Structures are given as structure tokens and as C-alpha cells.
Amino acid sequence: MKKIILPISFLVLSGFFTKATAQVGLEGIVVEKFYISNAADSIDAVNNGAVHPLYVGSTTYRVYANLLPGYKVVNLFGNVEHPLFIETSTAFYNDPNFGFKVYQGTSVNNTKKNTTLIDSYISMGGVANGQMGVLKSEDTDGSIGNLQGILANTDPQMGLPITGANSADGLMPGTPVTPSVLGISNELDIFDQTAGSTFTTTNGAISTLGGVEGVTASNHVLLGQFTTNGVFSFKLNLQILTPVPGESQIFVADTPTGTELTDTSLIYNSNPNGGVGIEETIAATALAIEYQVYPNPTSQSFAIRQHGNMTQSNYDYTVTDLSGKTVISGHANSQVTHVDASALQTGIYLVTMSQDGILSTSKLIKN
Q1: What pTM was computed for the model?
Q2: What are the helix (H) ranges across the chain?
Q3: What is the SS3 assignment for 291?
Q4: Which residue ranges make up each domain of the chain?
Q5: Are 116 and 162 in contact (CB under 8 A)?
Q6: Quick one: average pLDDT of 97-111?
Q7: Average pLDDT over residues 196-206
Q8: Which residue, of 35, 64, 293, 365, has the fewest CB within 10 Å?
Q9: Please, are residues 226 and 61 in contact by the beta-carbon 8 Å criterion?
């Protein structure tokens, strides 16, 4: 009996069937270190209202399906037998002004603004209007640049820089398509300034009717990019179309049945020692918390004043440096809380207040 991936994706792909073929179209999943954030990037993110800070040293990972010529990605899915996970041990970062959860056709001009180019999102090849994602090593037309002069790190761990001289931003001309999101709703919110660390689905898919090919001869199709300062991991399942009309192949992360195929690269962990397990995290709703940090700059102490949106004046606060290290933490139960900062070294810090999974962050300057 023919195996159906999941009811909702079968409705979309009812014109295709799966059968065993002599040639396997998936050569593997490729993870590229696209960018590593620095202090200028972090400060820009906070200044623009990022709920989850962009910590110095955060890595932007790009995930590609490497296909044989003529093969196309049509479906990134999860079902009960083969759950799909994309996870970090901390949180995902997204630009607070122009970010998106699934590729939706951001203009090139907005992609050049602030930290949009290192957003966290799922895609079927597209990055910006008229621009497809490619490996930086295959990018032959330089960089679109950045209007705020950031994203300029040259850390050798990330390979080619994405802006500036001799750079490659991993964009090449093409015709991106906006994927269909099936059976998935607020699970994707963790990619867009919402508390949580795991995206998972057991009855959903990101799909494109007709499939998507890469725009270079190597046929790498961008499945998404994800920015985090934590351990990054995933467990993916793919359906690809073969060059034979009406024929497709299904690749699952493990325990294949029937005509399903598997590939070890569908499971990934950025920690070579396997630093995190895969488990579901319930994402809380991220709301704006209004509070004021003053005086700012400060040389000795500062105060946190809570203004609204909180059910009570009862919250936790942390002060971190730009590397993400916590230097002060505490609990507040009054509208105004005074914090001793005299032991802090001169520099820039991030003050985060949290209550029931709701976060807000502000920049603090210590003189």
C-alpha cells in the first residue's frame, strides 16, 4: 500500500506519486556558517527594539538541500512517524522591524536594513525579491551591502564576509516563490521575537507546488537560515521531485518504511558532542513590556521603572555583557527597583526583564 506523508501535504501534492527509483536525488544537507555577529550588530539590534538580544558571537546558520541536477524540493514536512524539529539551546534572533518566519518576499532595500540579512526563517530558496540563497563560495556578484554599516564582521570562522571588500552575501538573481504553510500556525513564532527554543511539527509542511531548484549548477536549495548564540540542531524530512514527470522521493531522518529513503545529514547538531536533546518547548507569547532604565549612562547604580502591560510589579531581571554572560541578576517586586552596578567595568550591557516568558531588553551604558 502506498504511504501518504500526512493528510494536509497529500492534498497539495495529489498530482505526484512516490515510487522506488534507481537514482537518489538528495546528495545531502549542507550547513553553512553564514555570519557571526559582533558588538556593532548587537547594539543595532537593541536600538531597534529586539526582544531577544543579538549577542556577540551569535552564528547565522544556512541550511541547504544539495540535489542532483533536475531534482526539486517540494515539501519540508513532519508527521507522527517522522517529527520535524528545528531547535536551539537558547533562542532564535530575528530583526524586529523587517523579520519574517517564512520567506515572504522582502524587498532588497529592506534586506539591506539593520540585521534583516541574518534573520531566522524557513524558506524554499528565496531570501529577497528577485534573490535566491546560494552558498557564499558560489556567489559571484559580491554583496548588496548594509545601509547602517553593520554586518561587517570578518571572523575567519564564517568564511567570506557578507558585506564590504571581497565579500559574498549568498544572494544570486532568481525567481523566489512564497511557500505555502500547511497545518502549522503559531509554532513558527519562535523565529520572530517570541520566547521559545524549538520549532516542531507532527502534522504540517512548508510546501511549493511544482518544486524549487537552486540557481547554480550545484543545485543547492536554501531551506532556511537560523541565528542563535546557542547550540543549533535539527531533524528534517524532505520530499523532492525527480526529473521524471509525476515522480517524487521521500527522505526521512530515521526509521524509513516502504519506499522512504534516509540520509544521515538530515540530523544535525552544531555541538560535536551533541550538547542538547530534541524536545518540544511551549512558546510563550512575546508582548511589549514597558519599562525605563535610568540614569543611562550610569557610573554607580541604575533603576528599573515598570510602566505597564505587567499584571503585577513582580519580575526577574538580568544584566548581561555583549558576549551573553550574566553579570547581575535579581528579582523585583516593586514598581521601581534599584540595581548596584558599581562593580561593572566600563562598557555596554543589556538589561532584560522577564515575567511569565514575556521579555524586554534595553541597552545600559556603564561609565
Answers
A1: 0.81
A2: 7-12, 39-47, 108-111
A3: strand
A4: 7-269, 290-366
A5: no
A6: 93
A7: 95
A8: 365
A9: yes
Beta-carbon contacts of residue 272 (< 8 Å; ≥ 6 apart): none
Look up residue 7 and give its DSSP letter.
Answer: H
How is residue 282 annotated by DSSP? Answer: P
Question: Shortest CA distance to 72 belongs to which of 258, 245, 268, 205?
Answer: 245
Cβ(268)–Cβ(29) below 8 Å: yes
Q: What is the DSSP code string of 226-271?
A: EEESS-EEEE--EEEE-SSTTEEEEEESS---TT-EE-GGGEEESS
Do residues 77 and 9 touch, judged by C-beta distance below 8 A?
yes
Amino acid residing at 37: S
What are 260-276's pLDDT values in tens digits? 999 999 999 998 654 33
pLDDT for 195 equals: 83
Q: With contact defined as beta carbons under 8 Å apart, do 222 and 206 qualify?
A: no
Is the Cβ–Cβ distance between 91 and 361 less than 8 Å?
no
Could you tell me which residues come within 8 angstroms of residue 51 by beta carbon, excluding any fewer than 6 positions away? 96, 193, 194, 286, 359, 360, 361
Give me the torsion for CA of 48, 50, 51, 53, rounded to 10°: -130
Cell of 64: 541547504
Torsion angles phi and psi, residue 43, rounded to 5: -65, -40
pLDDT in tens, 14-56: 344 455 455 999 999 999 999 999 999 999 998 998 888 899 9
Average pLDDT over residues 83-111: 94
